[in-house]
Amino acid sequence: MAAAILACLAPAAVATSSPSCSQRILVLSAMPVELDPLLAHAKIDRTVLAGSRTFYVGTLQGNDVVMALSGIGMVNATQTTKTALAKFRCGSGLGISGIVFSGTSGGDYIGDVFVPDRWTKDDGKSWLRTDPAMLTVARRIASTVQLERTNPAGDPACTGVDPNTIPTVDVQHAPVVEVGGDGQTADPFGGRRLPCIPYGGDVFGCAPCTGPSDQSADAVPFVTGAAPFVDPSFFSGYFANPPATNSKYVSQDMETAAVGAVAAQQKVPFIGFRAASDGGGDPLMLPGFPFQFFVYRQLAADNAARTALAFLAAWAAR
């Protein structure tokens, strides 16, 4: 009888044993327009929900990855990174082996891609270092990336059309990848979380433009979270005083250093690829941010993604 009982229990013991765990690269972008060109090259096996965040799990350029929209701003970026590191585990350890951020920024020339070797979120009082091994790979691929100069019209309403279908103008400066220098992350929202807008297009939307998605669940968080931003004086003040553009920083954004701070706390390597959507070389002579951003965001997002993809391919092959 005892032998029979043990024989019945044996399969259950095997079935509950821990499967092997795959370490993954966390790939983040703030907005749909930034994540879509990366998702176009990925094979997504499944989606994972963690709180209000959606993560896309699969492979990209030979790497096992977790991909996600961080949301716009430092608070969103911090929360998304913490959620990912808590959700994806290998037993008691982290299941994330590195973090790659790809997106738009301010910079010298529209279309240029910047890979700073350190970042600050307090205007130079403290610094977060880009992982040296990742930076070495970025330097190696920098001159090999074919960047775009012609600005596409994009898909601002997230209708699903190819965002590169309609070309518009060529920027006056041939874009290049610049590795090194200092990057700045600022918080124009005063420590508040900017909520995404359900079906809000390629900038403010809650999900990538590509593929099916149900953003109805985001409606309540948007309504409850939007209150601090409803006052028209907030937006008039924000657009009148955008994130500071300072020549001592090669790139200025609203997320990378926030992600880097969480990565540093958990001892996870990170790197940021940021392409200028506002800066010099504008043939339309628009008056800076946010006007240039809304015209050149697709060009910048595409160039940042091209560089991040080249990096990821080289990282997998190292």
Tally of helical segments:
10
Would you tell me which CATH topology applies?
A: Rossmann fold
Number of strands: 16
Q: Can you tell me the overall shape? A: globular
Low-confidence stretches: 1-19, 222-230
CATH homology superfamily name: Nucleoside phosphorylase domain
Range of helix content? 25-40%
CATH architecture: 3-Layer(aba) Sandwich
Q: What Rg, in angstroms, do the CA atoms define?
A: 21 Å
Distance between the termini: 56 Å
What does this structure look like?
By secondary structure, the chain is of the alpha/beta class. The chain has one domain (21-317): Rossmann fold (3-Layer(aba) Sandwich), CATH 3.40.50. The chain is built from ten helices and 16 strands. It has helices at 2-15, 32-39, 74-87, 132-141, 201-204, 219-225, 227-230, 232-240, 256-266, 291-317, and strands at 24-29, 42-50, 53-60, 63-69, 89-90, 93-94, 96-109, 113-115, 118-120, 128-129, 150-152, 167-170, 177-179, 182-185, 251-253, 270-280. It has an eight-stranded mixed β-sheet. The chain has a four-stranded mixed β-sheet with strand order 10-9-14-15, covered by helices on one side. Helix 3 (74-87) packs parallel to helix 9 (256-266). The longest helix is centred in the C-terminal third of the chain and has 27 residues, at 291-317.
Question: Which features does this protein show?
Answer:
4-stranded mixed sheet; 16 strands; Rossmann fold; 26% strand; 8-stranded mixed sheet
